[in-house]
## 1
Amino acid sequence: MKKVLAAAVCVVLAGCSNEPAKPAPSPSAPAGGGAATGAPVGGQFSAGRSTPVADPVYPQYGNPQLDVLHYGLELAWKPDTRTLTGTATLDLRAADDLREVRLDFSGAYQIDGLTLGGATVTGSVAGSKLTVAAALHRDEQQALVVKYHGTPATVAMPSHRPDVEPLGLTVTGDGALWTMQEPFGASTWYPANDQPSDKALYDIAVTVPDGWTAIAGGTPKGHDGNVFKYASTVPVATYLTTLAVGKYTQETLAGPGGVPLTVWYRPGADDKALPYLRKSPQYVDWLAARFGPYPFDSGGVVMVPSESGMETQQMITMGLPDYGSDANFTSGFDADLLHEYAHQWFGDAVTTSNWNDLWLNEGWAEYAQFLYEYERDHQTMDSWEAWARTTDAGLRKRLGPPGKPRADSFAESNVYICPALMLHQIHKKLGDAAFFALAKDWVQQQRGTAQDRAAFIAFVNKHTGQDFTQLINAWLDSPTTPK
């Protein structure tokens, strides 16, 4: 996610790579899921298996007793009536014995039908929860089909950032759609286990009116008339999914190794961003040279009417904030887009398993951004560290240390600057060769998984043969800037 640092010329985003790493093939079912087509739920979606954990920051979202292996979403949008109609097929694995199936889902929708394992079941939506009256045994796998319709409604973002906007699926005045949903908000457009530790595979098909386009995360699978299709065969956390519907123009660029990078923009509204969107292959190449092959088989950016940006997987969601001047836009949007591309490695390929460890996503993307900026601007990292230490001290005093962020202060600058400084200390101790080898191996060896602080510390110590436990914990937990 883009960072806005109040009172400083500092805005942030994410992602990048050299040659596209071909993920291990995972069969991709048509939108609607395995059970809907008569295919077995089990091995077909085994790549979507996760070990969900209860989130310590937002425990009201997610169900750690449930593992969604695959989402098959068949959606239709009618802008004239502001109606979203959906059939969501969730291929589920019970992580524990369950007396009922409980998922996150917006009360803005009316349920039109529910089946589990092909049998009709009863359920209800109360608040932000869909509860289905059906028991499952531990490791039992079934397909839940939810049919619904309604007008999307957003939820509040728990943050004081200057670019705060409502989370989830947003309807614009002209009937277009767009979404950003970190840390939660996927459940504003489909029933979801809305927590970062439960990554799943996706197939998405969206029907739109004539002349409109639907854009989603994952790999484009073409369109059949007005039905646009996308598939994610690499696991995705719910907050990293995206959907945009509107009147878009498309350009496809060749990234490193031939990986296709598609940019979607609204003529007139997004013209200012076009020179940077067209630099996407350069961003990916710069990042891949330092952090290893781009981790997906496609990528790109979709522009939306937002004040922020989001590292949604394989299809970055970008807005056009007011940078204050043309000079600030030139440097700021360039760095922000690089930041969001960096997240494709740090946050998307490897995702934090809980929101206490948001630093694990943002610290890496922030550090990549500053390496890029100071190379671009011919500055020194010593000058950046002097500025960052002063900034870090103020952030820790105002917001606390990055390793335990406040629930009402999501994604504020302490989880960007402070861990980026920590990575800089590791970089200085290891030198370029060992540091970038560590970064590459962290992504490539953990790709497709959700990780936490303990896993990162264990990896760093094993990879380097040195004990960085005290250094990492001090930078994440200290109320003041470590010496």
## 2
Amino acid sequence: MNIFLNDPWWLILIKVVALFVVLLVWTIFNVWYERRLVGKMQHRLGPIMNGPFGLGQALADGMKALIKEDFRPKNADKWLFNLAPVLTAVAAFTCWTVIPFGGQVTIFGVETRLQLTDLPVAAVFILASASIGIYGIVLAGWAGNSTYSFLGSIRSTAQMISYEISMGLSMVAVFLMAGSMSTSQIVESQRIPLQLVVPFTDIVLPLGLQTWYFLLLIPSFIIYAIAMVGETNRAPFDLPECESELVSGYLTEYSGFRYALYFLAEYINMATVSAVCTTLFLGGYLPFWPLNNIEFFNNPWFGPIFFMLKVQFLISVFVWLRGTLPRLRYDQFMGLGWKALIEISLIWIIVVALVANTQYRNATLGLGLALLIVLWWLFGGKHPVAETPEQRPVVEEVYDPFAGGYPVPPMPGQMLPELAGVVRGPAQDQTPAEVTAEGKEA
């Protein structure tokens, strides 16, 4: 850590400005990139015709967000309404202060790393900073004084808290393998050549690969990949913003520059979780195989190139999911987080803890595959069989949905009066009026 403490103030300022510019330019590029990629996937042109390669549309939308009328609802809380988007945007930028773009280099005669700073608990710092963004979403829903905004913020809060637990547990396995929570040290620990040790012998077989943790910790990688989509409220987990139910969720009352801050934070968060995934599981700034075996490509100045290529690949996966998968139901989504991901993570952490500090640490690759096979055997491939008309339960009760003064949906075994004519079973030959009369007598 001493190398970061020796950076002069002017070098820190250069790093801050460079990081800020890179994130802004990268966000503009990702907006354009997502539109182009979704258009290709869905065989449609979309708003990509203005300017060369559709760049004019992205620039026009950015300018429109900046100069559009920025209004606030009459009954909204003024201070919280203005503070909410700032909190979310600041949290999105803060996470990048400990993300390593490259290794140790010399800049104007000063030995430093291509990273703003690092901490002994940098990975935990990322989780803490990302959690601050939740406050921005909660305050947006509360301060807007709107039902749709409030429901969207409540959904987002439950969603982000639930999947942050899964995300944090998936990181624990990486900490055990790397022996550190420092992001730069986690990346360097993946530089070690991957070797296969034959059990109960002294035979060691080099594989020519680096120990990227997505190979050794397959369950953790899969859990993190699912959690990072849920954490960023992206499709198919975009339930806090789904237009079919909540107009635009917690963003409903925002426009202009304040809306642009949320829009910016969403894309930066998408890049942030992808950068963390790259750092923890994909070797960070380390070169790909087989380039890692060529000394020329191990130059630390190539690190940012490899790092950004990996992050952009993960962003492409985000876009792919948005363009192909339908939105989940909320109960399915929460059940996945609480009933599957957390339990699997806890079991996997115990397995990793038993072998992480032994000579058979690379055996986690086989153990992880074995765990996935067992889970698939227990829970996969079992689909409910559709009921035949004879197997469906007989509806015997017809009820009045407005009996208590409020509309109440039917419970299992109940039917609305206007639908009673399609009742199966003994009552199928009765007229709707006869069934309704019997239901009232009951």
